[in-house]
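Question:
Now give any protein.
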Amino acid sequence: MHSRFHTVTLAGLLYGLLSFATFAQDKDLESKALHARTDASMCSNCHGTEGRAVKDSAVPSIAGLPRDYMVQQMQAFKDGSRPATIMHQITKGLTEAQIASMADYFAAQPR
């Protein structure tokens, strides 16, 4: 009986640890999504809410663009190899992690 109690206790402990790990993982994903959305919000002034620019705007919509394309273009703005009016100044302050996060965010948005 004593070893059966330990088996049940161990099973309960393992279940609790797995549940906590899943909860922590979910919270980490929520936190990353919130950070991505917050970083991406700076783009809404020009590129529109969630990256969808106003119709007939001179500024392109960026929602739904491929992630790798977004990263490439942001890096080109940052290093000055792509001509721009304001994007050079905006991207200079971004880290590679922020660029990747924003590219992930906008790639996931519907066009």
Observations:
- Helices lie at 2-41, 44-47, 67-79, 87-92, 96-107.
- The chain has a mean pLDDT of 83.
- The radius of gyration is 22 Å.
- Residues 7 and 13 are 10 Å apart (CA to CA).
